[in-house]
Design goal:
This protein is α+β, with helices and mostly antiparallel strands and about 375 residues long. The chain folds into three domains: about 120 residues, Alpha-Beta Complex (Adenine-n6-DNA-methyltransferase TaqI, Chain A, domain 2); about 100 residues, Orthogonal Bundle (Helix Hairpins); about 140 residues, DNA methylase specificity domains (Adenine-n6-DNA-methyltransferase TaqI, Chain A, domain 2, Alpha-Beta Complex), CATH 3.90.220.20. Helices cover about 30% and strands about 20% of the residues. The protein has nine helices and 21 strands. A four-stranded antiparallel β-sheet has the order 2-8-5-6. A four-stranded antiparallel β-sheet has the order 13-20-17-18. A four-stranded mixed β-sheet has the order 15-14-19-16, with no helix packed on it. Helix 4 runs antiparallel to helix 9. The radius of gyration is 24 Å and the shape is elongated. The protein starts with 11 loop residues before the first strand and ends in a 6-residue tail after the last helix.
Length: about 375
């Protein structure tokens, strides 16, 4: 008896290629990319931006190497990276339905690469499935899109909030346009009453973080860190019996120390743990914690290009495995304002960070509800 990998038995028997015809993506290096608004979608999702598109949207992209079997959707034109398969033809099917259907398939189980995970389109094109008619596809997609639209709206708000926090930081601590700056003299490039100190004095670098118990500990992998924002993706998190040597708590900043993660911008702000909880993570993280300045100041400094460039210049090791030296923080200097200004800044930035945490929490609940609904719609348990 044929085993069908997708759909309701009330739908038409078909193969995956009837749902979508997949094609390998296009190679492009970071050096070849030019500033633009076209997302370059790699196996882990949108990873950078380029001025040129290779494919018109809407379309679906699947992780072919690396993050095997992950499924991504683009409404607009995009560049599918060589590490992906993209939807060359949707065969008249609803694009969103195709996206949701592929998410249900568990494509990671079709690895043909052994130690180097690889998804071969020829191995999955012939998978037997049940395929819904277009009207049913439209109805199923509309239910699920309602959740994703809310999630995307929250993501846009998160992006705007982080941009606002970064602009506030630069205005105050880079350009020195803080409240009342018109009445403060600048001496040797620093406002009167301010201090210039090294980052290693302003922050704690890899501080000791003891645990109160020996139970299961949350582990954060490098894959959880974003290249562009503070939110830490909780999907890849796992519980472990043994802790790594890298431990942290709410309010800490995680800063990648290995190439190419550092150059790509992988940085995160921890604010998802329970009160008093300690988590552990990749040994390729540097943990930065507030000391002379607040947790918000620490994270926003870590996002500054000059801070990252200073760290990159300190890297040593063999090609492809170079790592940051902690001594680099002795050579990077930050401006520390008087306590009154620090308090005003922290109140403003802290409110933005709190809103980001609330929106991220909403998104996780929306995603959980959507993911409970998804398989029931796809197997016909819920008829629409």
């Amino acid at each position: 008896m044929t085993a069908f990998y997708l759909g309701s038995k009330h739908w038409k028997p078909a193969i995956l290629q009837d749902l979508v015809f997949l094609q390998r993506g296009f190679d492009i290096t970071k050096a070849e990319q030019k500033d633009g608004e076209v997302p370059v979608i790699s196996s882990s999702g949108p990873s950078s931006w380029h001025s040129e598109a290779m494919v018109e949207g809407p379309g679906v992209v699947i992780g072919r190497k690396g993050s095997l079997g992950t499924v991504h959707y683009s409404e607009n034109a995009y560049w599918p990276h060589d590490t992906t398969l993209w939807s060359k033809s949707l065969n008249g099917n609803n694009p969103r339905f195709v996206y949701y259907a592929l998410k249900c398939l568990g494509l990671e189980r079709f690895n043909v690469g052994g130690a180097n995970p690889t998804l071969n389109r020829n191995h999955i094109h012939s998978l037997p499935i049940y395929l819904a008619d277009r009207k049913t596809q439209d109805n199923v997609a509309s239910w699920l899109v309602a959740y994703d639209d809310l999630i995307e709206n929250n993501r846009r708000r998160i992006t705007l909030l982080e941009e606002a926090a970064r602009m506030l930081y630069r205005e105050w601590f880079v350009h020195f346009r803080f409240p009342g700056h018109e009445h403060v003299n600048i001496t040797d490039g620093l406002p009167e009453g301010w201090e210039r100190v090294s980052a290693s004095e302003a922050f704690e670098v890899n501080p000791p973080t003891p645990r109160d118990d020996d139970g299961i500990i949350t582990y954060v992998p490098m894959a959880s860190l974003s290249e562009v924002g503070m939110v830490i993706d909780q999907a890849p998190l796992e519980g472990r019996q043994e802790s790594t040597s890298v431990r942290f708590q709410n309010g800490d900043t995680l800063f990648a120390r290995i190439t190419p993660c550092l150059e790509n911008g992988k940085t995160g702000f921890v604010q998802f743990l329970a009160d008093g909880e300690v988590a552990c993570g990749s040994t390729e993280f540097i943990v930065l914690r507030e000391r002379r300045v607040s947790r918000f100041y620490v994270y926003l400094t870590a996002r500054e290009p000059a801070f990252r460039e200073n760290a990159v210049r300190s890297m040593i090791g063999s090609s492809g495995r170079q790592r940051v030296q902690s001594s680099c923080f002795d050579r990077y200097f930050v401006a520390v304002p008087p306590e009154t200004l620090r308090t005003i800044f922290d109140d403003s930035a802290g409110g933005m960070f709190k809103q980001v945490a609330n929106l991220d929490n909403q998104n996780r609940k929306l995603a959980q509800a959507r993911d409970l609904l998804l398989p029931r719609l796809m197997n016909g348990e819920i008829v629409v």
